[in-house]
Amino acid sequence: xxxxxxxxxxxxxxxxxxxxxxxxxxxxxxxxxxxxxxxxxxxxxxxxxxxxxxxxxxxxxxxxxxxxxxxxxxxxxxxxxxxxxxxxxxxxxxxxxxxxxxxxxxxxxxxxxxxxxxxxxxxxxxxxxxxxxxxxxxxxxxxxxxxxxxxxxxxxxxxxxxxxxxxxxxxxxxxxxxxxxxxxxxxxxxxxxxxxxxxxxxxxxxxxxxxxxxxxxxxxxxxxxxxxxxxxxxxxxxxxxxxxxxxxxxxxxxxxxxxxxxxxxxxxxxxxxxxxxxxxxxxxxxxxxxxxxxxxxxxxxxxxxxxxxxxxxxxxxxxxxxxxxxxxxxxxxxxxxxxxxxxxxxxxxxxxxxxxxxxxx
Length: 361
Ligand SMILES: *Cc1c(COP(=O)(O)O)cnc(C)c1O
Prior knowledge:
Elements: E1 7-11, H1 12-25, E2 31-35, H2 37-41, H3 45-54, E3 59-62, H4 65-74, E4 79-82, H5 92-97, E5 99-103, H6 106-114, E6 120-122, H7 134-142, E7 150-152, H8 165-177, E8 186-187, E9 204-207, E10 228-240, E11 245-246, E12 252-253, E13 258-263, E14 280-283, E15 286-291, E16 299-302, E17 316-320, H9 326-332, H10 337-347, E18 349-353
Parallel strand pairs: 1-18, 2-3, 2-9, 3-4, 4-5, 5-6, 6-7, 7-8
Antiparallel strand pairs: 1-10, 10-13, 10-17, 11-12, 13-16, 14-15, 14-17, 15-16
Helix pairs in contact: 1-3, 3-4, 9-10
The structure holds pyridoxal-5'-phosphate (PLP).
């Protein structure tokens, strides 16, 4: 009995290609850190880290100590930065694993200093989340803390290049980081911020989305290769008559003789309930609309307009593909494409298209 689980295919060579695209967008002196938090945006921490370290990526950002330990088991010679900060429980883990916490409060900086732990300093410049404020940096300096390996901040509005907050955050970042030892390396931007210009790049950029094929800055043409494909199996095909309805609450009613396909993917697999009645999937290259509500394990599609011989039970239906990137599903679900990746990646069977041998340096 073959599996009816939906499959998220991950193209590892495309992740490498996207790393090289970012490489070409920044000066050769700018270091690129790969952001692999949340299980590499749902795509699988170990596989993504291995793929990137194969082409020379030497620095990673993870969400927490647990992820950091997974990365360290997999690759020994890379920097691992932990976004959640420094947790005092199990403080030895940082030294043993050479893990670098991103300190978000003065207390964390003091703990890193007294425990002689290398750390990254996060500054709050307008995101309104984590990091030290100006007054906190000022008073911290007096206590002569250990100097950070890197000082960083994070832009709130980089997806919109015309947003004045970008400039404001950059100016605050320059002013606040000037209070530290001048040779301290600096990092401000993530994927979208790269296209704001080289004066935003500083010494290091932190790239997540772009590696996974997302075009957050809406670059035209899109230089990033698609990385994921989401496919699910057609498990049933039926005719319904005009006037018959489909799914919970009967939100779709046939206005003609309709060929209905049932596909084994539902909101459990990250196909958002919100896409009901408007997202198009693809069957054998033909667009097929989702009709009725998405249920937990299934959804229905309209196969009426595609050649009958193409729509067979067991056929694959694509919900994310080269022609329908995660951005399309995200728009339909009123969310961001990163959430689409994280949710589908966490709940579908992942299959990896390996890097063809001979293509690696
Ligand atoms: C998630 C994250 C990034 C990466 O963001 P992308 O837009 O996905 O490239 C960079 N820096 C910080 C602090 C983050 O939380």
